[in-house]
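Quick entry between incubations.
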Amino acid sequence: MQGTPQETALQTIRYGGDYNPEQWPEQTWLEDVRLMREAGVNLVSLGVFNWGILEPAPGEYDFSDLDRMIELLHENGIGVNLGTPTSSPPAWLRQSHPEIRLVDFDGRVMAGGSRHGVCPSSPAYTEACANIVERLAERYGDHPAVEMWHLHNEYGWANVECYCDTSAAAFRGWLAEKYVDIGQLNDAWGTAFWGLVYRSFDQVETPSAAPPGVNPALKLDWKRFSGDAHIANYLLQRDIIARYSKAPATTNFMIPNCEDMDYFRWAPVVDIVSNNHYLIAERPENHIELSMSADLTRSVAGGPWMVMEHSTSAVNWQPRNIAKTPGEMRRNSLAHLARGADGLMFFQWRASRAGAEKFHSAMLPHGGTDTQVWRDVVSLGGELKRLAPVVGSNVESDVAILWDWESWWALELEWRPSEDLRFRERVEAYYASLWKQHVTVDFAHPESDLSGYRLVVAPSSYLLSEAAGKNLRGYVENGGNLLVSYFSGIVDEHDGVHPGPHPGALRETLGLWTEEFHPLHQDEAPALDSGARGRIWSERVRLEGAESVAAFAGGPDAGHPAITRHRLGGGTAWYAATALDDATGLRSLLAEVLDASGVQRPAGVAESVELIRRGDHCFLINHGDQDTTVPDLRGTDALTGADYDGDVPVSAGEVVVVTITKE
Amino acid sequence: MQGTPQETALQTIRYGGDYNPEQWPEQTWLEDVRLMREAGVNLVSLGVFNWGILEPAPGEYDFSDLDRMIELLHENGIGVNLGTPTSSPPAWLRQSHPEIRLVDFDGRVMAGGSRHGVCPSSPAYTEACANIVERLAERYGDHPAVEMWHLHNEYGWANVECYCDTSAAAFRGWLAEKYVDIGQLNDAWGTAFWGLVYRSFDQVETPSAAPPGVNPALKLDWKRFSGDAHIANYLLQRDIIARYSKAPATTNFMIPNCEDMDYFRWAPVVDIVSNNHYLIAERPENHIELSMSADLTRSVAGGPWMVMEHSTSAVNWQPRNIAKTPGEMRRNSLAHLARGADGLMFFQWRASRAGAEKFHSAMLPHGGTDTQVWRDVVSLGGELKRLAPVVGSNVESDVAILWDWESWWALELEWRPSEDLRFRERVEAYYASLWKQHVTVDFAHPESDLSGYRLVVAPSSYLLSEAAGKNLRGYVENGGNLLVSYFSGIVDEHDGVHPGPHPGALRETLGLWTEEFHPLHQDEAPALDSGARGRIWSERVRLEGAESVAAFAGGPDAGHPAITRHRLGGGTAWYAATALDDATGLRSLLAEVLDASGVQRPAGVAESVELIRRGDHCFLINHGDQDTTVPDLRGTDALTGADYDGDVPVSAGEVVVVTITKE
Amino acid sequence: MQGTPQETALQTIRYGGDYNPEQWPEQTWLEDVRLMREAGVNLVSLGVFNWGILEPAPGEYDFSDLDRMIELLHENGIGVNLGTPTSSPPAWLRQSHPEIRLVDFDGRVMAGGSRHGVCPSSPAYTEACANIVERLAERYGDHPAVEMWHLHNEYGWANVECYCDTSAAAFRGWLAEKYVDIGQLNDAWGTAFWGLVYRSFDQVETPSAAPPGVNPALKLDWKRFSGDAHIANYLLQRDIIARYSKAPATTNFMIPNCEDMDYFRWAPVVDIVSNNHYLIAERPENHIELSMSADLTRSVAGGPWMVMEHSTSAVNWQPRNIAKTPGEMRRNSLAHLARGADGLMFFQWRASRAGAEKFHSAMLPHGGTDTQVWRDVVSLGGELKRLAPVVGSNVESDVAILWDWESWWALELEWRPSEDLRFRERVEAYYASLWKQHVTVDFAHPESDLSGYRLVVAPSSYLLSEAAGKNLRGYVENGGNLLVSYFSGIVDEHDGVHPGPHPGALRETLGLWTEEFHPLHQDEAPALDSGARGRIWSERVRLEGAESVAAFAGGPDAGHPAITRHRLGGGTAWYAATALDDATGLRSLLAEVLDASGVQRPAGVAESVELIRRGDHCFLINHGDQDTTVPDLRGTDALTGADYDGDVPVSAGEVVVVTITKE
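Done. Structure below.
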């Protein structure tokens, strides 16, 4: 949550889901509201996709169903999270303004019959958005049931980039505003390479298909522009609503599975950060990815936030939509809560009979109320009432992992030294290893204030601006501990290599330079003399102040440093020149670095148990299939009221929340 | 064959192939006709692709070669199956009417230099088709050599769907005719989902690229429309020809390897059902797929039919065009005959020297007459004369498998619970297991009269209309036996989930409902307590009248029913909630169900022997590499005249046809 | 080198690389020139991509930087290889003439921000090329530093084929010139197949997407036309420059990794053949592919040539850009030298900080001069001075492998008998086996004079014109030895099957014909009775003069010939009807054929040692990890001055060059 004046603090845990009454006869509405009350639902997202129903023809409106539904919920004490329907423009708008259709990278004009598919820079679309939003805001802006505004839906999904002429012109305008003078752009983009210099902004084209490799700086600014085009649409809507309503506005982020939106740019413009998270169903230990999502969302928000969508069980858009196992929905929801969520909303309330998502699970499944899913939904609703005291409290951490969407984008542009260099691969490796050692982490932008952390980890920080480099150096000099992995600090914000040897932005901080990169063959896994084993990457490290902690024992850099440590000012900077994983050396490296950094971890806790402290609550989530005990906790069970004085039993698959009464 | 008045009964087995005299000098024609007679050829398909030769410029005609060729064949007692050349429009038509070019899903305009590539809804193309067909019909309509008309070629191959503006308008017209009122369309398509409602038919777009998921009901009607566009072209041609000729008309189907044509809609409009079938060369046991093709073609035809194209050996368009092994061509041809074919035609008579298909095998290969292929062609021609008595007789079966192209389409639209849900995967699993148990099957549409069958199998009947559901219920209540596999009866004809729990259309018939689907991981294979092993699918079955025959012993539904049986009225409905294969439990399940249904199977016959009864002929085809004996047959060898009184020896790779004289 | 009058003989080994001073401040220029001298650089490629800098707006020029740079190099005794910048047209040209943008197979219009992406047939582009080339030629044509002209860059990379309307018109013009009469085209292309006949040239379309299979003869002529469009651009530039300059002109070929340019057509139009070669980094034994590249380039050139680009270490555009191992750069460079290169140039001099290729290695890496790469560059420069005596001398060979780009194209068009039929697969199998037996080979066009060779190998000569067939027959009859692999001599220059049985162009020469092709299953590997083992292919060989040397012992042709030998006139023609590899029978077959052909090989040389004789120099390159000795050489070490009289030691990874003083 941002500290804006119009913010409505969440004083209970918000619980509910998307509801689309237009899909059902009115008698079903009454049943639905009765069941919502049974489940403890206190917030419903309405109207996320109903533009075509509210405005069946240009300037013709029909709010009758929405009026009635809002009243019905209000009468039943259920709040409304009111959507603006702009992510699914009506067929008449596409018909009367065919120029609004999104054009993709391959030049294909997107068809209708789906949502999205619209150019975010289109004037006709923008005008129509402003109009429908204003109609909604003036009609419902002061309705007491409207507790929150849900603007658009999933900005940046399936239509992130538009390559139409309107977008091209908007891109050129964006560039002119950013660089003012074309010479500045030429310098920033390094257009001397391949003679790609521009004489004026109107010579710049969008980076659609153009083999071979397109100027990476052009692509990077294109991604920035494309994100900003969506932010502009959000701001337009937000400002209209603010004229009519005091309720806070949000839009649902998709952290971390939307690569294309830089949520560090989004967070300041929303009143409440809300996020959609869906498990990657076929991935082993996917609950760790959920934890990472929650930690990153909290870090982006700078405090509590809410889950706008997650699922009670399977989704419908993955290759194999594996259903959740017994207790998994509860573990997922409570893990979000533990990591800072003040609201737990689902897509969706009632499973649809038609359309693209009818096989997506819901709070109320096709099978009705005699189902385990429904019983679990009711039970969770009851538990959340008992857990209301956690609302507004914070999660604190001694460790931060650097995260930067721009670095992600840059690292995965064309023509890097190895296609195995993947941003999330390294971040997730470090995150998972820390998770298994019960270390709760924040994520931090490389240019942010890091002074509160005992340890900062930079798993794959390819792009680091000069300012970020200085920030990290200052952090170490002032006593911080920094652990950097390979191929970090290589380029600046325009994907230009920092002057001098790699890693330019970190050379002095790490006390070393790299003579040559040695990407490894696909299955190559050289040993280190520490017994660890690397993958993906090797390089010729030249020490320049740092000392070698472990050396390569094989591969192209056998005998040369693989892990180094550099004392600088009051702190220490570590470097790992190859890819270690939890089992192949990362766990012991991290243990050593955590110890050296003075980061405490709980002792005697099984690896499968997720242990998170939020305010004065300690959440224990057992993801394993063995019953276990967590030692050394004193307090009260927030769900059962039981007292603990030391060992807390946590059965397989169970969640225990302890209100700590004595540290 | 359909019982239409103009039908010419096939009184001999038609034998021959496509012939393209325009590719050869006239002296080769004489050699060809001599060799045709040597091979016993009695029907030749002429003119399938010669539009550019017959009409070299608009309104300019040259029938001289075709005149001479028809005379030459006629003089030699060989019939003509006269093609209309509309599947390969001439270059001048593309040049003068560039708007006829087909536009594909990605918006690409198809180039020339190939066949197809034309919009089936194009007025200019349609007009040009009508003209050339009328010219052919008036010239050759009463020629005594013309025994059959071969309209177009392979409707629906490589140009099934056209996304051009003309097609879009035609689609809207088709929808307006079907739904009359746009409200009906909105209801049928469930457009309330994502607010995709239409105000008028002219707002509907073709479902070209539009991520994410497009309304599945739109896609389903698009596939129906696209098929109808081709049927309309056929009907245009058929009606013109009928004004000049009494010879029956056909077009070559591609069963089952063309997914896009609903041949249940096509069969009533042709006078004779004819089919192209090519082996999937690299597939093990591909002769079973051939059998399935023949059974399905017969079922679609409702009686005897003909093979319009198969190959003497390799084709040219598969990744590895494996040639046929010794005897394989004969086994293939006679298997078609056994399963109801009254004609056995090849593509093509003489191997081409140029063009895209020059490496396709032919009756007369590049190597000439001193080749095994040629000797086999001559030998087969001789045998077919002796087998003429089978013409017109029927294949009868106690077992039907449900088949529905619309269900196939619907099941494989976007966003199903698992990508492993594939229509043919399940149908082929059940078909193969029945084949190996020597059960000859019919295929039946779910809404057709099933009362003649002892057992009906529904391997993957995802889409079942309410009428189909009632039909199946009535079938069981009236004493039928029904075996249903998972994910059947889920949606109606608009891909809308039937109200209530799954499987809506079959819930009462099966005596159960499904609480939740549990798609399995890729390599997950839970055991059943019967010793069987499932794949792909599991689900939580809730009994509601049915009894459990076998339960899951592992996986997400361990301890819950996997196979059930429901006594209903005079019949029984079985359900299999997971994917069994012949070796992992399907064979024994089918054996149990066949026994319970009173379906007789021949005893003592080796698994590799295909045994089919057609009229009073029994075909024995040994696909194995061991000689064997089939017991308990009494009759005369239709090829050698030998008498059998009990055991009939069938050598490895051989075919024996017994005229049964005593049951 | 071609024997043209304007040729400047290379009297020293040219050493240097691409240099782009526009990417650096002027103070860096001075450092660069100092370091160039330290490294022994004597030639620098300038201005390859600087059009946008030289001509910042239409008709506005700025040669000041280039003037200064040329003077600076000249003052330092370094020659200039002056580029024409036409491969990277400036943004203003794309803006003012949007019609120059290349349209790809899928109809996508190529964007800017990259190089290439332009229609080679575009009049506006052509005119702008001519203008900037003329400006350069008049300004620098008689400058003494300009020793060579580097026209364009990598013709045919990333924009080989353009499908725009301008290209379509140019293609039709090219066809009209080639065939004169449309009837000739119809005959040549076999358009009777599928009725694809044309009435006039303006009915021909470019072969963009048009499923199913497009006429292969159309595709083949399209590839010829597309190559010629690039040659036309080269000739335009060459002729302009020749009016101002006597320095030789070249353009950098990409042998053998550019499939699309027929370098047999290119070689006669350049004054010096130059080539770019980059290792396929992840391929085992990729030094053999380098040898093949060098031998093919020498054969195309008809004598000495130069390397225009290779790399000091890793490139940036492969999936994993593996760096070179210690000594590998030197082995690579000297292998090129050994096989006929008179110049060894790198891309590029100094590693770029920005743009698409900043992770490409360079002579001067990001790490600067305290690096192994730099030390190796300096050391190699020194050695090349000592090796200057090899300049101009020749490599001679007793063995030729047939090579024909048109046959490569034809073989890999759609719809061949097996997708495993790949041109390079077979050529490389034969080449590698000969390499390991220390046989240096030439490559030869099938219609060229072969009389100088003891043995000619035709590993995959699918397309052989009638003239080529006669040429090979004459070669054998006159005493030559020919070894042919399967699927050779099948089609003529229009991809038309030669009349009669396969292999039409070789039937009489080989003394056999093929009854049927039997492509093998993916993992099928039938044994031969010789103990060899085949892959990919089998066929039914019918002897007609030849004798069987080995027969298939398994597979579809068990008992029939697999290897045959035919005595014809004074020579012998061998045939291998399946794919043998070095270890599975090819080595012993080649040994037998080499012996029978009287081809000498050095005895007692380790397999890992590359031994090549160029003039009176013998190069010994040890690619293995064991020290070894090469016997029987007498002479002086060209690098160290040591004397050898018999055994020459060659350490692991080392290169020894012996000036032979006594044979």
